[in-house]
Amino acid sequence: MKRPASAAMLEVAAKRTKLNPIVSAISDTDSLPADVKELLTGSLKIALGEFKELRHPYMAEVITMGEKCMKEMQDSMAAAVVAAKGKATAMTDIGKEKGRREKLKDAAAAEVAKQEAILASKKDAAAAATAALKEVQGALKAAKSEAAKAASAAETAEKAKAAVAEASTESLPFLKTGTSTSADGKKALKLLTSIATKYKFDSGLVDALPSTVKKDPAARSEFDLYSFTKIEEALATALTTATAAAATEDGTKAAKAAAEEAANGEVTKAKEALAAAEAEVKTAAGEVKTAKKAEAAAAAVVEAYWPECQEACEAADTAAKDLESFKSLVAVYAELKELETPPEPVEPEEPEEPEEAPPAEDAAPPPAEEAAPAAEVPAAEVPA
């Protein structure tokens, strides 16, 4: 027959079943270092599962460490309860908390309006920069045209100057010592005639020149020689005029080129200004986008007030319940720490079975029925 377990041992077994929740609580906590949790979860069951007087010193150290950690965990949970209740109290202050959120939402909306106004001004500035660029580009186009005309005029004047100089230094000397009958002579005469026409030499000299240069130099008259002298003087005057004209046109060319360069610089500046304005538009648009996101987030915070309020209250209640539940584990931990081997149960003595009486030799007769009481007989009178 199996001996029944004592009540004390059943109580010990019941307490030891709470080791698993204790170990789980230590494993799940965030308030202890990972190495400490690993040590306790691996050895605490063994240490607390042994009776106090049978524990190895190492087991006692583990239990002491666990007790300290349990206190730290309880303190941490108590602080969490205080924080959760504080948050719940703050959240349930509708006027303050909901009002704070509404103010943030209004501020976010105001910021959107502000950034949109800035964006509008930046767009206006970019539009103005675009118009300014078109204007200076038009000015540059005109300046380029003027510079091209001035360059062409300067080139023409320079060629005219060169032609007069050639006529003075080459064509006229050639015809003075030769005739116009040769190809070079005809070329020299043609150049002198064109220059004389352009610079309006004396018409008599111009008219006489072709017939004069046809003559052999030795056959020319005094008038012919006089004509050469006057043409030479006219060429000198024409060269002075052409030189001055070339200088003037060269100056105009330089001025127009400088104006073109300046206009080109203005275009460069206008392009840079437009690029900067467009960059500011892009930045301002980004600020508007950011402000709108913040406004949407603020609106969401307002909408989330009641759910978060409920969540905060429930979290405070849960934290308080968790703390009370953990306190019961701390109490069990303390009991298991001091748990000693219960005494052996005293087995009750089994009662002796009574011996059976031997059978009587003569069975007693069954008791007679009780006779009815006799009628009272009156006492006999004693004779006197």
Descriptive labels:
2 domains, rod-shaped, 384 residues, mainly alpha
Structural account:
- The chain is mainly alpha-helical and 384 residues long.
- The protein has two domains: 7-91 and 317-337, no CATH class; 118-302.
- The chain is 78% helix and 0% strand.
- The protein contains nine helices and no strands.
- The protein has helices at residues 7-16, 19-28, 34-49, 57-91, 94-177, 183-198, 203-214, 222-303, 305-337.
- Mean pLDDT is 85; it is low at 368-384.
- The percentage of residues in β strands lies in under 5%
Compressed to H and E, one letter per element, the order equals HHHHHHHHH
- Class of secondary structure makeup: mainly alpha
Report the total helices.
9
| Overall pLDDT score | 85
The total beta strand count reads 0
Per-chain topology:
Elements: H1 7-16, H2 19-28, H3 34-49, H4 57-91, H5 94-177, H6 183-198, H7 203-214, H8 222-303, H9 305-337
Helix pairs in contact: 2-3, 2-9, 3-4, 4-9, 5-6, 5-8, 6-7, 7-8
